[in-house]
Amino acid sequence: MAERALPRGEHRVVVVGAGIGGLVGALLLACRGLDVTLVEAAPAPGGKMRHVFPGGAAVDAGPTVFTMRWVFEQILDEAGSSVDAALPALAPLSVLARHAWRGVDRRLDLHASLARSADAIAEFSSPAEARRFLAFCAQARRVYDGLEGPYIRSERPTLASMIGDLGPRGLMLLAGLGPFSTLWRSLSRHFHDPRLQQLFGRYATYCGSSPWSAPATLMLVAQVELDGVWTVEGGMHAVACSFAALAAARGVRLRFGQRVDRIVLEGGRVGGVELASGERIGADSVLFSGDAAALAQGLLGDGLRAAVRAHAPTPAERSLSAVTWAVHAPTEGFPLVRHNVFFDDDYRSEFEDIFQRRRLPAHGTVYVCAQDRGDDAAPVDGPERLLCLVNAPADGDRVDDDTLEVDPCEQRSLALLRDCGLTLAPAPHQVVRTTPSGFHRLFPATGGALYGTATHGWMSSFRRPGAKTPVPGLYLAGGSVHPGPGVPMAAMSGRLAAATLLAHLDSTSRSRRVVISGGTSTRSATTAGTA
Length: 531
Known about the structure:
Elements: E1 12-16, H1 20-31, E2 35-40, E3 51-52, E4 59-60, E5 66-67, H2 69-78, H3 83-86, E6 90-92, E7 95-101, E8 108-111, H4 114-124, H5 127-152, H6 159-177, H7 183-190, H8 194-201, H9 221-226, E9 229-232, H10 236-249, E10 253-256, E11 260-266, E12 269-275, E13 280-282, E14 285-288, H11 293-296, H12 302-308, E15 321-329, E16 331-333, E17 339-343, H13 347-356, E18 366-370, E19 384-392, H14 401-404, H15 406-419, E20 422-424, E21 431-434, H16 436-442, E22 474-476, H17 487-506, H18 523-526
Parallel strand pairs: 1-2, 1-14, 2-10, 7-17, 14-22
Antiparallel strand pairs: 3-4, 5-9, 6-9, 7-8, 11-12, 12-13, 15-19, 15-21, 16-20, 17-18, 18-19
């Protein structure tokens, strides 16, 4: 069914949600001449890219890394701007992350330079492991290059379309990983040192999954990091604010602090949205950039629950949630860099606790983003801004914080940090804590899941909904839809949603498949030092 044949300037679009997917979709649609209104329940843009204020200091309390710069270069090029012009100042990190283990005296840094990382691994483990690391990264690059077009740039691929797009060479590449291989199984073949298996197994958590269940293709995260990791002046929340400002400059009407209660259907197609205030905003298309589970649960109207056929993930199918502590307090001991990972000594039990026993892990990994630090680990004079995170089950709609035993988890986490050399003893007013139930309140229908559904099993990549829905005029974006979670992928979902909507306006058929071109910027042009 074709969209209504209206002149571009008369086609009204309401975008629901000002996460990065909604911001990108609104920006690009406005740049193509559509009449766009963006409505967001929160008082500011960003979604999960939010600030909290322990001790009065602004701390990024969501995503903390800027990667895949080429995604934003291409989006902003479409919008007639650039990363340098539109976004806050970016600074590349030479130390991607510092890793420590309980009971291990030595630390391991991964670097933007492949050669420096290999040297560090040779010193930390052995020259043989360094050679295995180089082979692992070479395979990760091939996987990334093979999947970028058929998966990342394509509107929700099917198994058949992926087979066609990959071609014989791409299929041979994936077959070499093992058709049903998990990331952990692949890492066990690549590395003999269990600490390195643990380190690279953490890549599964970037999409909220267990390395024992996630597909081996997630090794491509290694290439994403080698392509560059940047810090952002003002934090990741500043990226959202910059996109919102650019969208407003391109004509998008921004309405913050106004919750959408219902997406209105008229005659089987979208007719607009109804706000909690009772106000109705008419629309010819709606781009929903909240969690797709909200549609499946009928939170935006019972009619959409049946019409969209979105699957509401069961708790067992949800991705990871987290307990986070945003801290503004002094630290002692451990030489923190920007990104730090502290491993306990029973990695498998962490994911068994979360995904099988549905409890906070007894041996949880602790991630610490030291937001006032750079590569040199120079100590901060006085209190510094930290985000500490432990993975958790996404049961925030079923289990309260007391039952989850968050306080004992906090004490275990602080003990792990002390055992690795970091002393952190914030006063209560210096901490803002967010639990799975807190994330569920912020992002309804999720149970606190931060990444949509878990990427478990080799078919999981095909289960996320795409931009197109069975309801004429309704489109989806955000981290719960294709191509997946994380700031760059959610931004790409907004680009795909805008392209899909525009393609339907320009075509007599809604069945046309959208594939995003490479544009004037290419990934290779922005690759950080990989040698």
